Amino acid sequence: MEALCFIASPTPLFRSTPQHLTFPPQHSKKSLDPLAYVQIHTDSGFLTILQDDENVGGLEVMDKSGAFVAVHPCAGTLLVNLGDVAKAWSNGRFCNVKHRVQCKEATIRVSIASFVLGPKEAAVEAPPQLLDSQHPRLYAPFTYDDYRKLYISPKFKAGEALQHVCTHYS
């Protein structure tokens, strides 16, 4: 894949929001419910930077075969995850990943995340440099706010909202 290089705008293009995620402890082995934490999803924004709990695992990513693979915490590191906006903006060249958090032990799990969401007002669309006869536009332009409404809609399951903005340009 060729390198993608774009000059950053002097004005903030994307919104960013930090979050401290605390998962309550499950009090007994019997109450350890993998569904009690975070269900399968893709991140709706452009980028997530995560400092995961170094003592308690649980984060899992889906591989190409559809199987979940544990992401083992590593002290002093950050995990970077691309979301739906990155996939649409890159015209499918960047991949978003389905992931979940499973409850593995009876203890509190703490993660700190910073989410780079989407443009404040501009449409999310692939720049002309990423479009040509071999790479036609895959996603219709959309605003992040409109996409977020689709994303949280009960009619879409994990990762399906982005498929709704697919286009069939030829």
From TrEMBL:
Coiled-coil ranges from the UniProt annotation: none
Gene3D superfamilies linked: B-lactam Antibiotic, Isopenicillin N Synthase, Chain
Domain Fe2OG dioxygenase: 17-118
PROSITE patterns: FE2OG_OXY
One Pfam short name: 2OG-FeII_Oxy
Domain of life: Eukaryota
InterPro entries the record matches: IPNS-like_FE2OG_OXY, IPNS-like_sf, Iron_ascorbate_oxido_reductase, Oxoglu/Fe-dep_dioxygenase_dom
Name this protein carries in UniProt: Fe2OG dioxygenase domain-containing protein
